[in-house]
Amino acid sequence: MSKTLTVPLSDQILDLLVSEFDAPVGTTVDTEFKLLGFDSLILVELAVALSSLLGAEVTDDELQEAGTVTKTVAHLAARGIHG
Questions:
Q1: Is residue 29 within 8 Å of residue 14, measured between CB atoms?
Q2: Residues 12 and 83 sit within 8 Å (Cβ to Cβ)
Q3: Are 2 and 78 in contact (CB under 8 A)?
Q4: What CA–CA distance (Å, rounded) separates 17 from 15?
Q5: Cα–Cα distance for residue pair 1/14, rounded to 1 Å
Q6: Mean pLDDT, to the nearest integer, of 50-78?
Q7: Are 33 and 63 in contact (CB under 8 A)?
Q8: 14 and 27 Cβ atoms separated by less than 8 Å
Q9: How much is the pLDDT for 43?
Q10: With 0-12 CB in 10 A as exposed, 13-18 as middle and 19+ as buried, what is 65?
Q11: How far is CA 27 from the centre of its chain?
C-alpha cells in the first residue's frame, strides 16, 4: 500500500510566490504581501495563477484583504477550497 503525500496549500502558494513572483527565498507564510512589494497588478496575476491551480475563482480583492499566505489559506478553506 503506497501513501500519496500531499503538499499543504500554504506551501504550494509559497512556492508559487518564490518561483513565479520573485518573492525572496526567506519569505514565510506569514510575510505580508505588501512587505514583498506586491501591488494590485501582482495580486491580480497571483489571483489568476491561484484560480488556475485550484480550479476555483480567487480574486485579487480576497488576496488584498487576506494579506498573507496563512490568511489566504484560511479564507479559501472557509469557502470550502482546499489544495
A1: yes
A2: yes
A3: no
A4: 5
A5: 30
A6: 96
A7: yes
A8: yes
A9: 97
A10: exposed
A11: 12
pLDDT in tens, 26-61: 999 999 999 999 999 999 999 999 999 999 999 999
- Which pLDDT score, from 0 to 100, does residue 7 have? 83
Give dist(CA 72, CA 67) in Å, integer. 7
Q: Which pairs with CB-CB distance under 8 Å and at least 24 residues apart come from 74-82?
A: 76/9, 81/54, 81/56, 82/9
Task: List b or e across 28-46, with b for residues whose CB sees 16 or more CB atoms inside 10 angstroms.
Answer: ebebebeebebeeebbeeb
**Predicted TM-score (pTM) of this structure:** 0.89
Dig out the grid coordinates for 30 from the structure: 506569514
